Amino acid sequence: MTDRSNQKPSGRPVALVTGSSRGLGREIALAFAAAGWAVVVNGCRSPETADAVAVNIRKLGADAIAVVADVADRADRSRLIEVAREWGGRLDCLVNNAAVDAGRPVVRLSENDWDEVVTTDLLAPMALARSAAEVMEPGGLLVNIVSFCGLWGCPRAAAYSTAKAALVGFTRAEAARLADRRLRINAVAPGYMPTDLGRATPAAMDIARKQHAMGTLSEPAATASFILRLYDMPGITGQVFNLDGRIR
Which residues are catalytic? Predict the structure, then answer.
């Protein structure tokens, strides 16, 4: 088998998915790869985990590169876009998926907690969207992963809820500006998922299941498929898609 670890894609559309070494991000990266895209895989803590996703993508016959970068760091953000553009020769889709959650109510949040969550979940996606839009050709797509908490508010996730709500506002506000360049930006709220992160808080997972109209949780693969489909919907921008089934 040919070693494709350093091979640059030729003519393939290129997707950059932040936080794609595990969970929903991993499913999104694999969905794009299965559709023939070249994928930039990103993680911030474990090079081995990000590399493993890239290896799986190559097994699908697609091209992939793993980039370890912390989106909360300005220099890492710039490097991430630069590497994606240099490796792929183009950038057709950015999915802002990386996020953190302090997991505490507002009275227990320190200023450092707020800074970490807001920087990672709001400022980083905004900066990456701006940088990605500068190198995208007309037809490009930016997707911000938001949350049920950003739409409705979650008492035990005050900082996360605030950042995701603001990201919804940014998505809607930025759509008009990017439309002049024929670029699209949308937000997707996936719902509570049985990923490693979701299973880490079983009480919250049980509540989400009980709130769901059909008594179930959201599936990462289904959300990934929806995001991939968005690319082929050229007239849709500035929208917030709630893929959850929870009823408030």
Answer: 160
